[in-house]
């Protein structure tokens, strides 16, 4: 039997799809199943348990591409992006990026942004809600004094080349598929956690541009009083 550390590392590699080496096979009890069959059980349990957990985070993706396609895609994902910590609720951040390069998803290029929208929803729903900044007078004075603002902890912004807000409405049953034109211009969504619920707001180009600058930590941003009031009212910003 080999060194325990070597066996553990070999086990991890094998779970992720590599061939088992002799030291690992020799460490496994050889009965009627055999070492290789025992390892396949662990491989299958790893893929199925993680992909099943992820399936519940992305119901709109499932509505878009179907359960069979999504399950298969997530099985590939867990092998490419295995968990790096024990917090299962935080696992899945890279699904959107994975769909952006997943060859089987080339025919649905907007799948990545739908997954990103769902991840932001999941992330906010599991976050501790922070206090909302509401003092417009103080905000205006702070802005005039050169104080910077940043995207609020309760907020996320998704800027898409696709009509992502319309896609969200169609996939969640708020509009019919006939009302959706995927060839329409891109849209930007502001997601805000308020009262334990995530709300979705379609942003116009000016508001989206201002939030993009804030999110990018751009210096010397000038925000008019009306825009500042709107961003505070939306729950989108906080003082730095």
Automatic annotation (TrEMBL):
Transmembrane segments: none annotated. InterPro entries: DUF2063 (IPR018640), DUF2063_N_sf (IPR044922). Residues 7-98 form the Putative DNA-binding domain. Signal peptide: none annotated. Keywords: DNA-binding. The keyword Transcription regulation does not apply. One of its GO terms (molecular function) is DNA binding. Gene3D superfamilies: DUF2063 (1.10.150.690). Pfam families: DUF2063. This is Putative DNA-binding domain-containing protein. It comes from Kordiimonas lacus.
